[in-house]
Amino acid sequence: MSIVLEARQVSKNFGGFHAVRNVNLRVQEGNIHALIGPNGAGKTTLFGLLTRFHSASSGSIFLKGEDITAKGPAEVALRGLCRSFQISSIFPGLTLRDNVRVALQRRYGSSHQFWLPSRVLSRFDDEAEQLLDLVGLTSLAQRLCSEVSYGRKRALEIATTLAMQPKVLLLDEPIAGMAAGDVPMIVELIRSVAKDRTVVMVEHNLSVVESLCDKVTVLVRGEVMAEGTYREIRDNPAVREAYIGAGYEV
Ligand SMILES: Nc1ncnc2c1ncn2[C@@H]1O[C@H](COP(=O)(O)OP(=O)(O)OP(=O)(O)O)[C@@H](O)[C@H]1O
């Protein structure tokens, strides 16, 4: 299997503090790959580096073998590497369908024109329906985003990210803050969207990681401590110690 996303010796310093230090990461095409680690381990920073929201202090990042270290986030998104935009980028006063239609515009470079008349937006209707169907939100398409549950908003967030047609989808804590009853829905959704693409996810919920992920990279204090299947990293004494030392139950 080929490597679709790779970090080589990547570091990020914030005013002399090493948030990420000499990280090597190889994500195989088609995998669901988790980044885990205690709070402050550098997971979100590494995510920002991979998607070019942060510039690396040193090291290189490759997407499908191409060096993207000097590229911006919009450029890498057009090349197929997209991170979920988080709920803050969802418009609460719009319907779920309109949120997806606005997201679809981004792909056509008109994201700043969200006041486009509905006759123009309607050209995205079919694709919006398909995306809503994919994330199980068809029956709620006409509801305002502000009226639906947090779990549905996270599903909508995934639909708006899929609108960019990513080959590699990065999800930052997709389960965080979710009611327990909504978790299986999002787990199944991630499994389903991962059938046609590679997924990299930061996730604290280890049972979700166990059920979804082919490979797990453990970051501790900005460095890779271990990598392998969930079972391998779970049985790794150094990983257990790092988690227990940080106050987690393992
Ligand atoms: N912009 C910044 N300026 C200074 N320090 C930062 C900045 N962003 C992150 N850090 C620090 O870098 C370290 C890693 O942070 P990061 O958010 O990447 O960790 P994390 O593993 O995602 O943590 P969590 O699980 O709590 O979200 C932390 O000590 C954090 O305080």
Automatic annotation (TrEMBL):
Domain of life according to the entry: Bacteria
Q: Which Pfam families does the record cross-reference, listed alphabetically?
A: ABC_tran, BCA_ABC_TP_C
Reply yes or no: does the keyword Transport apply.
yes
Q: Which PROSITE patterns does this entry report, sorted A to Z?
A: ABC_TRANSPORTER_2
Q: Name one GO molecular function term.
A: ATP binding
Keywords for this protein: ATP-binding, Nucleotide-binding, Transport
| Positions of the ABC transporter domain | 5-246
Xref: PANTHER family: ABC TRANSPORTER ATP-BINDING PROTEIN, CONSERVED COMPONENT OF ABC TRANSPORTER FOR NATURAL AMINO ACIDS-RELATED
Q: What is this protein called?
A: ATP-binding cassette domain-containing protein
The species this protein belongs to is: Microvirga arsenatis
